Amino acid sequence: MADEPLVLGIETSCDETGVGIVRGHTLLADAVASSVDEHARYGGVVPEVASRAHLEAMVPTIERALKEAGVAASDLDGIAVTAGPGLAGALLVGVSAAKAYAYALGKPLYGVNHLASHICVDQLEHGALPEPTMALLVSGGHSSLLLSSDITSDVRPLGATIDDAAGEAFDKIARVLNLGFPGGPVIDRYAREGDAEAVAFPRGLTGPRDAPYDFSFSGLKTAVARWIEARRNAGEEVPVADVAASFQEAVVDVLTRKAVRACRDEGVDHLMIGGGVAANSRLRALAGERCAAAGITLRVPRPKLCTDNGAMVAALGAEMVARNRAPSDWDLSADSSLPVTEPHVPGTSHDPAHGTHDHVHETSAGNLHG
Ligand code: KG4
Ligand code: ZN
User: Fold this and answer.
1) Which atom of ligand 1 is nearest to the CA of 279?
2) According to its UniProt record, which cofactors does this protein need (predicted)?
């Protein structure tokens, strides 16, 4: 609908320079420039390399997104940007670009949370998020169970990993198997050819006295690494596909079991899965089976919207505009450890009485948030 907010979103929290444009719940453009190849030889993301790549990719990616969407920058109702969490230097490039564009165009600026964006992106795929929504957020930096009654203002953590994130475990095991970086997609591929029951790897934090919604993947990681090492020391070949499948099964078994339990305990009948690991084919399949058995409706965005992108930031920005949330101040800073409980960074000098987005249209850039 033409009266839904038209928002451009910028994502630079890690190694993807993402620029997305949405109108309400409709995706118009999703331009991504990745520096992943530049990090591959280091086996992980090098922050300085990522920041430099963002700087080089930023303007061309914004221009590409505007062209793809077929809209003029002057038509935008707001500019959203990932304010955190993420790599400080990388975030800074996006935040600076967003401020420059917003100020020059006279548009409101919304510094938003990367994690809430991973959840909100599903509105582009499956329409408005049910309220409340249970979200299993699994990425390279985070693994959490979150309950949200309003993605712009209320995100409650029920549990999280106490050590490695799920994606981090995929990346580390891929390194031990010499499969390269990032590890998730390649393990996913190998696992399809393997036997998930070949090795019974441990399921972390699933004992009766363990925290019901917390995760732990470091014990699993060590168990897999030891198993591989023992094979190698004995001069035996490592069955890569079987190890990949058995490791993957241990991760997704625990993730889906705890997510379904959280829905049941909280009386929530919708589960959303987001973040890069949500692209995993086995996680998607097992979550589908277990949710169906429990009478829970599962929502998982298409894989390209699960890994980092700008559309997810635009989606949350559009929701901020639609719900008249206060824009951020011009001195918005990148916050590498922005808490998951803060979906956006509202401006302190903003007067909520004048906060509608219609008003913002009529106001000059200089006193937008005043
Ligand atoms: O959300 P994301 O793109 O970036 C962060 O915010 O961290 O997630 C990246 C993580 C990486 O650890 C990557 O290995 C993992 O998501 N990943 C996958 C798959 N695709 C990406 N993990 C398992 N299976 C996949 N198909
Ligand atoms: Zn992410």
Assistant:
1) 26
2) Fe(2+)
Q: Give the position, in ligand 1's atom list, of the atom nearest the Cα of 165.
A: 12
130-302, what's its fold? Nucleotidyltransferase; domain 5 (3.30.420)
**According to CATH, where is 3.30.420.40 located in the chain?**
6-121+309-367, 130-302
Residue 113 CA to residue 80 CA, distance in Å, equals: 10
pLDDT tens-place string over residues 6-52: 999 999 999 999 999 999 999 999 999 999 999 988 888 999 999 99
> Within the chain, what is the greatest distance between any pair of CA atoms?
73
Is the CB of 275 within 6 Å of ligand 1?
yes
DSSP-derived 3-state class of residue 331? coil
Is 82 in contact with 15 (CB distance < 8 Å)? no
Does the predicted TM-score (pTM) go above 0.90?
yes
Quick: pLDDT tens for 105-156.
999 999 999 999 999 999 999 999 999 999 999 999 999 999 999 999 999 9
Q: 307 CA to middle of ligand 1, Å?
A: 6
CB distance 96 to 347 below 8 Å:
no
